[in-house]
Amino acid sequence: MNKKGGIFKRGLVIFTEGPTDKIFYKALVEYIMMQNSLKNRVDVLEIVDLGGIGNFSRKLIGIFKSRILIKNKDTKFTVICTYDTDVFELATKPPVNWTSVRKELRSLGALKVIEIKATRMIEDWFLFDTMGLCKFLGIGSVTPKGKDGNEKMKFLFRKANRVYTKGSECGEFIKDLNFKIIHNCLQKEVAQLSIYLFK
Predict the structure, then answer these.
(1) Domains in the chain with CATH codes
(2) ∠ Cα 197 132 129 (to 5°)
(3) Is this structure's pTM higher than 0.85?
């Protein structure tokens, strides 16, 4: 109940590291919603690009407090933070203190705070549909080579005389990805997303 005795709306905020991640999650959300068309969707959905892992905590809290909550005073939000795990694996001091982030978001009224981690990077998720990537690039089916997902994406793009730059807005290929394949590969990772997109 809100202060006027009415029922609060339900909302979901998805924070992403960068612009390509935002495009990916938007497409993934659309796929999940399409597969669950009879369910009641949340009243408010926001997908926010934080522009990198640098100052992730400060930007996330600031946007949630001064933008999301201000314009949705009658809405209670679940917050999903998405990120690649590679920047945490070798860091002596992790760039984000998730305990602190969860505590602060809850103090601001978040109903639940969830992390969705791409192990090791979101490029590994794109590569679940190598055929779709090759179709977008206009190249024959090839097995990407490289030490990690980023290197493999660069390999595929080079085959088409194009450049893939991690962290920049280069998500035009996402429209050619088969999200049935991707979602099937990621059911465990995105299970919470599939729950909190709906009331």
Answers:
(1) 9-121+179-196 (3.40.50)
(2) 60
(3) yes
pLDDT tens sequence for the chain (199 residues): 554 556 899 999 999 999 999 999 999 999 999 999 999 999 999 999 998 877 788 999 999 999 999 999 999 999 999 999 887 666 567 778 899 999 999 999 999 999 999 988 999 999 999 999 999 999 999 999 999 999 999 999 999 999 998 877 778 999 999 999 999 999 999 999 999 999 9
Tokens of 159: 């085959």
The sheet that has 112-118: what strands, in order across it? 44-49, 9-16, 75-84, 112-118
CB atoms within 10 A of CB 66: 10
166 vs 158: CA distance, rounded Å? 14
Instruction: Write down the number of H helices and E strands in the chain.
Output: 10, 4
